[in-house]
Amino acid sequence: MMIRRLHLHDFRCFSEVAFQPQPGFNLITGENGSGKTTLLEALHLLAHGRSFRGRVRDGLIRSGQADLQVFTEWTLPDGGLRRIGLRHAGSRWEARMDGATVTQLSALCQAVAVVSFEPGSHALVDGSSEVRRRYLDWGMFHVEHAFMPLWRRYARALKQRNALLRSGGAATQLDAWEVELSNSGEALTHLRETHVTQLANALGPLVQRLLPAANGLALDLAPGWRRKELALRDALLLGRDRDQGLGYTSVGPHRADLRIQLSGLPGRECLSRGQAKQLALALLLAQAGQIAQERGTWPLLQLDDLGSELDSRHQACLAEVLQETGAQILVTGTSPPPGLLGGQGNIAMFHVEHGVLRQQA
Which class is domain 130-264? Predict the structure, then answer.
């Protein structure tokens, strides 16, 4: 996708701002707190239903205002034009897409594909399993059409079983919901395993270039229960007494994790912060490549404060990889990152100061 225009109203420090990024590289500079990251944050909100810096009510709406508004316009590979507008008040939202009212936020997320690398992205490697599940599921949401109905079935059955566990529901009721939980959970896990295999194939070459010290990588799915020994239905039945004591379901795909093994480096828990960021970047670019293959166009790539995240040598290596994608890329920094942008051709330069965004010659 190619963003043509972004307009924000009462979003963080901006009362009003219009941004017209160009194809290829776009560099946005400004002092800390000037609002450069806010531009990336707004597009991430449309694509993920959340900010990468917190919930909507945690400071996204400009102080003293009731809501924020985001509007964006982008072109499709065939030259078509699409538009989305979102008004968000923290607890409620309204949206329109191509002039029609949107009733589900997932419709916005499906239409707008944005992959963001930001200072907290290392959590994809060294953070909790929830971060990696969210990463996997967002990628599947864009490339596997059967994923969302299955995920909703599983989430509904999980909610019902947990409610019965807490209320002391009858065994017959638990039996019924465990059948649904098992059927949807086994199918969901099969989709995830296939997706992880495809992701590993895309990730291997990227790791060789962005983190060569890894000397090879293996990626697999920890499904959330002892799948090689038990069907999910049996695991739920065996764990029922324990789960009744806990008040929640302790096994299943909602406990899954993405396992990452590096041949030439210690486990992901022992990686340096810089290595974790390089691996996280490779994971995100591999996911972006899968989306590009499915949709016929690269998602928007956003790299926040990259000059402080990677040294100049790794920036230069990344620049080569990014240049090959042909994607539209937004990069922010307090100053131009020399290793990343020094060898690029046409770069659109923007500067933010005192709530005003200007394009530079």
Answer: mainly alpha
